[in-house]
Fold this sequence. Notes:
Oligomer: heterodimer
Shape of chain A: globular
Order of helices and strands of chain A: EEEHEEHEHHHHEHEHEEH
CATH class of chain A: Alpha Beta
Mean pLDDT of chain B: 93
Distance between the termini of chain B: 44 Å
Helix content of chain B: over 70%
Number of strands of chain A: 10
Low-confidence stretches of chain B: none
Strand order of the largest sheet of chain B: 1-2
Structural class of chain A: alpha/beta
Radius of gyration of chain B: 19 Å
Mean pLDDT of chain A: 93
Helix content of chain A: 25-40%
CATH superfamily of chain A: P-loop containing nucleotide triphosphate hydrolases
Number of helices of chain A: 9
Largest sheet of chain A: 6 strands, mixed
Amino acid sequence: MAPLLNVAGLQAWYGESHILHGVDLHVNEGEMICILGRNGMGKTTTLRSIMGILRKRTGRIEFAGRDLMSVPLHKVAHAGLGFVPEERGIFATLTVEENLMLPPVVAKGGMSVDEIYALFPNLAERRASPGTKLSGGEQQMLAMARILRTGARCLLLDEPTEGLAPVIIQRIGEVLVELKKRGMTVVLVEQNFRFASKVADRFYLMDHGQMVAEFPVDQLPQRMDMLNTVLGV
Amino acid sequence: MTMIFGIPVQALMGQLLVGLINGSFYALLSLGLAVIFGLLRVINFAHGAQYMLGAFIALLLAVHGGIGYWPALILAPLIVGVTGALIERTMLSRLYKLDPLYGLLFTFGLALTIEGTFRYFFGASGSPYAAPAALTGGVNLGFMFLPVYRGWVVIASLAVCIGIWLLIEKTKLGAYLRAATENPVLVQSFGVNVPLLLTLTYGLGAALAGFAGVLAAPVYQVSPLMGSNLIIIVFAVVVVGGMGSILGAIITGYLLGIAEGLTKVFYPEASNIVIFVIMAIVLILRPAGLFGKDA
């Protein structure tokens, strides 16, 4: 079966800086992959390029068999991709509920507001608060929740555990497991491979704008030396 | 004769009304400027010309088409809004990736072009535009005589300002606008057509200026320079309210209009500069403006 998301030979630039040097990756429907790598290796740039936020790029990006390279940014979401940025992007002038309801529904099958509040009870309690009054963990949950409502088939999730307390990281892990059960396809960017190993099916290891290794989660113990070298842990 | 602070109450109320009417125009115009600046980050120097355009379209519709005030109140803002949207889509949008100064320079040039063209064809002197029959005459309130049309200006301006505020604060479209003001790229990645939103916003801002122009036509003379006389004051209002603050633009518009009116009563020599003095004080004490984000 053809992968849901297929990226081949992706190169990308910020101005004159050449960041991605031919990224290849694929994600099957319902699979959760994790891109590991140190800071500045191109993980976030990969997600931003796939989403179409970064437009100075070459190569091939196909989603559900559709070429996304020429699709304008505002139409990529309608193809079924949802992006949760590292900085979370919670809008200060909007309440929690307004933030949650902001992204348009792009397809059937998204979570209802009741389901989302059941999954993230903290958000329900604070639905009338300004979005930026939430804690870092709650903001991360809100950033994920608002994409889950849209019916996106594939979630691009950029470092969801960055700067969060262990108890919140555990909660985000539980949410990801729940999403997996629901058949959501996820591309996770992480530096915390211990966290990722509990949720991801497969790993890509990124170094200097390229994927240098790809392996399933059960090969993680054998790859520890390589991980330690590339991640510098 | 009843006196307040040594001033006859009729004179005081008269100037308060003048201030409120001026404030109505300041609020409408600064609201349009704030909406445009908030999302597009463009300081729309063409706003005064678009206000003048609204008044002139109403005049031309009456003279050449026999179309009266009420249809003109809808048609003129619509024409100004559509023209603004076309200008944004075909010209202004090309400048977004450059320094905001380019947008300011472009709209400044646009204002001079529009005003120069109208001066060429219609001369610099003003033309009268009659208020509709239903709004002529006045009402004796006991302490002052209220011309009906001026009362209508205040009510119409308030209604439009509240309507636009509700649109921005209470609707999904408004939520898109507010979110896109903060992070347009992220909003676009959610699937919202932000370029279209920018075009509609500029069109809305221009239409508000056109609406103010039609409202102003029976109060002031319709002349090619009517906008350039007003726009500097309106910029001061936007700065005092806080650049991009919708509520700030509305409230400050009325308050500064009233402050100007009261200054005419108590110290007439300062009435032309009072708004700019307030602006200078606000800039020193609260650079983000009274309702600005950092205030």
